[in-house]
Sequence to fold (422 residues):
Amino acid sequence: MSFRRHGEGTCPPSPAPGRKAGGFCVVRRGAKGLSAQTAKGVGLWYDNGVMMLINLFCSLLAVLVTLGPVRALGLPRWGVVLAGVALVGLAQQTLAHRAFGASLLSPDALPLPLVALFLWGTAFLLSAGGLTVAWLGLRLCHVAVSGWWPLALGAAVGAFVVWMGVRTPPVREREVILPGLPAEAEGLRVAVLADIHVDRWRGRAWCERLVGRVNGARPDLILFTGDQADGPLALRRGDLEPLGGLRAPEGAFLITGNHEHYFETEAYLRFYEGLGIRVLDGRTATVRGLGLMGLPDRRSLTRLGDDALRLRGLREALPRGAFPVLLVHKPGIAPEADALGVGLQLSGHTHGGQVPGVALAIRHFNGGFVRGWYTLPRGMRLFVAPGSGVWLGFPYRLYPSEITVLTLRGGVAAGGAKKEKS
Ligand SMILES: [Fe+2]
Fold:
């Protein structure tokens, strides 16, 4: 990728090569010939905590579905037992990954069809379990409903939400009015690539299609807002190489998300630089009157101090007159950015909330911001990108993924703190 020269500053420097990321000790596990790496603290928390709880919950749902709709099918007793064992087995994806020495942070050890089967199985059990509760309610009201309904509908919903998560996203054009936008940035087209989460399922072919769609939209500038890949670099290098084919006259910039800090952060960043994508973590750059600021994900800042302080440093490092644009993976820092006079914040991390219900929890943990446009009290515009991909640990979506292409326009301040139509 070729770049125009940009004004550039650094404030303060990115973590030194070889340093541990975010206070987490990076460990190496044997994984049937794979060098699966995961951050110890994160791996233990997910594998022994949340993901095992999901395993347990889905196991209980499997028993509920077996004793409810499956038993109502009129199968012989051995058939019901066999179906129950199969359904409980479907719920064991975390145990299966652990048995192969890997985790859902990098599901590279199991054969891909088995990974897909477990992912669909979890989605099936969650939806069929909910439908079974409704089915039981109808039966209590003496409404005759076949046991096939919750099973068939659960299977279809499970397949649909997985497909929505792993599909190649369409381009979505959006326009934003930014008071004070410099004339040279008027009409600038910015492709925002959030949470692409390239992994073993959505690998090289998916990445090639993504690049084709981005280039087809003819953006002037490409901005990645974190969570670019999952897994050790040795396994993802070939999958990510197509990103080197991205084309934009003003170039491409990237910041880290939390998932960058689960693996070899510095090696990944050097790899992206090698592809022609500029790493903006802890740095500033000026592009056609925009003052880009890249705030690394707070996971990397744990040992470096307060991220609001670092944001202030970045803001002060911008050249006078540059329109401040903040790239930060998680949106929750928006009020501090607004108070510092930032004009536009671009974030991701939430995957648009993924599915109703879960979106409420995601909103709660991200400062009330979950997807689309927000206007902060001092006028800053916040865009929480729905994202182009999803993490394979929970790859279920009803809120659709997209490749966002923003067209920047100058204009009059909207005023007031509010959520706008996304
Ligand atoms: Fe994230």
Q: What stands out?
A: The first strand starts at residue 7 and ends at 10. The chain has two domains: 26-166, 170-419.
